[in-house]
Specification:
Blueprint lengths: L6 E3 L6 E3 L36 H19 L22 H10 L10 H26 L8 H31 L15 H10 L23 H34 L3 H7 L2 E2 L2 E4 L2 E20 L2 E17 L10 E12 L4 E3 L5 E4 L4 E3 L10 E3 L4 E10 L10 E9 L11 E9 L2
Antiparallel strand pairs: 1-2, 3-5, 4-5, 5-6, 6-7, 7-12, 8-11, 8-13, 9-10, 9-13, 13-14
């Protein structure tokens, strides 16, 4: 009987494997077999050295054996030999590039197997690419103040396309890695079990390949997925889903940021939140309101004539419709009202006229106070007098209460003096109040 070596080397990973193995137990690669064609005549024994030979040595040995066999038996049967497999060079072993190439080519293939080395090299590729994509996504997401612009939408589509491809590659490669361990792809359902499931799945994915009796050994040939329409359809749908989720997240985040910037503290919300509806009494008229809001202020000025001028409250209201009042000394239609509450304590005999003040808004409007509608509390005030009241300003165009964020007030006061060197007898007050 002929004698044969009891081992050979895997063409894919270079590991030593049994001669009769058709698949490598380490990487799962299919192995070539020795073809021996003969007629009914007795076979000639051929001995091989146990140590691997070089290609030139093998060719020389084969030629010598063939000549010997032909000279011994004449024109008898021809013996055809297949050289023993040699270890594949290190450069042909699985690496990041080769694993990614195999993963992309089989992106839409769930049949067949995927070796352990290839799978974890591919996993490393996907992690590195995902890190880059995450950085780009963060730059796009937080650009332009979270405003969803056309350029940002296109960027979301491109990022969504990359994420879709990586997701499909990872999904199908995981199924084929489970096949390599002789397990069904349904084991992926384990990932839905919180905490324990992913750990069990990770352990299964690190198991070595199962060669004997592996029901997933055969990998049927199929055309490259880029030549068929349905993989592109799946990628397009996934890209739109991912891009849409990114756009929605951007909008929701921007809304939350704006809300957090404009939300009042609990102490302020009881008095500073705008309320809808209601009415306002201006002399003998009731004016219907659509919005109104009260802002508490802490303005106080005691720098002149030993007297104190304070503003403790500003009320802003938007009328339900344009209004024109007969009692008003301006006789113009308006849809916004600003009421400023003054307190005055005279430290000497003075004359003060807040009811003749001028108001400027952050909206670019300048209006004079409406003396006919304002309370009567100013004018000549003797020493020790304390007075308070509202001064009303009518705004011809107020879009909303929230649009008014600051006002500037100017009014005059003076006192009588016989001292020609007293240059402080007159005072022009000028202050800006923030409404927030």
């Amino acid at each position: 009987m002929p004698t044969e070596p009891n081992f050979k080397f895997c063409l894919h990973c270079g590991q030593k494997i049994p001669t009769e193995a058709t698949f490598c137990p380490s990487c799962g690669a299919k192995q070539p077999t020795t073809d021996l064609e003969s007629s009914s005549a007795p076979e000639k024994s051929v001995k091989h050295d146990s140590a691997p030979k070089t290609t030139s040595d093998q060719e020389s040995t084969l030629e010598t054996n063939a000549d010997t066999a032909q000279s011994d038996s004449g024109p008898g049967p021809t013996v055809v030999f297949t050289p023993i497999s040699e270890p594949t060079p290190t450069s042909d072993r699985p690496n990041m590039a080769s694993a990614f190439d195999r993963g992309v080519k089989a992106a839409f293939t769930i049949k067949g197997r995927f070796s352990r080395a290839d799978y974890w090299w591919l996993y490393l590729d996907i992690v590195l690419i995902s890190l880059v994509v995450t950085v780009l996504f963060s730059l796009v997401f937080f650009s332009k103040g979270l405003v969803l612009s056309p350029g940002k939408t296109i960027a979301f589509l491109l990022i969504g396309a990359v994420v879709a491809v990586l997701s499909v590659i990872q999904f199908t490669a995981t199924i084929r890695r489970l096949h390599d361990t002789n397990r069904s792809g349904h084991f992926l359902w384990l990932s839905l079990i919180p905490t324990v499931g992913p750990i069990i799945l990770l352990v299964l994915l690190t198991q070595p390949a199962v060669v004997a009796d592996n029901r997933f050994t055969t990998s049927p040939a199929s055309p490259h997925w880029t030549r068929t329409w349905w993989p592109w359809t799946i990628l397009a749908v996934l890209s739109l889903v991912f891009a849409g989720s990114y756009a929605s997240l951007s909008t929701i985040t921007r809304t939350a940021v704006i809300a957090s910037q404009t939300t009042a503290t609990p102490a302020e919300s009881a008095t500073n939140d705008a309320t809808k509806g209601g009415s306002l009494t201006l002399r003998d008229s009731q004016v219907r309101l659509s919005q109104q809001k009260t802002y508490h202020q802490a303005y106080q000025n005691s720098s002149w004539a030993k007297s104190t001028f304070a503003i403790d409250k500003v009320e802003v209201a938007k009328t339900a419709e344009a209004v024109k009042l007969a009692e008003s000394d301006q006789q113009k239609a308006f849809n916004g009202v600003v009421a400023v509450h003054f307190k005055i304590k005279a430290g000497r005999d003075i004359a003060a006229y807040p009811t003749q003040a001028t108001l400027n808004t952050n909206l670019g409007q300048q209006v004079n106070s409406d003396m006919s509608l304002s309370d009567t509390f100013d004018g000549d005030l003797n020493k020790g007098t304390i007075k308070d009241g509202n001064v009303y300003f009518l705004l011809p165009n107020l879009k909303s209460v929230a649009s008014l964020t600051s006002i500037r007030l100017k009014w005059d006061a003076f006192y009588d003096t016989d001292d020609e060197n007293d240059n402080s007898f007159a005072k022009n007050f000028d202050t800006t109040l923030k409404l927030n």
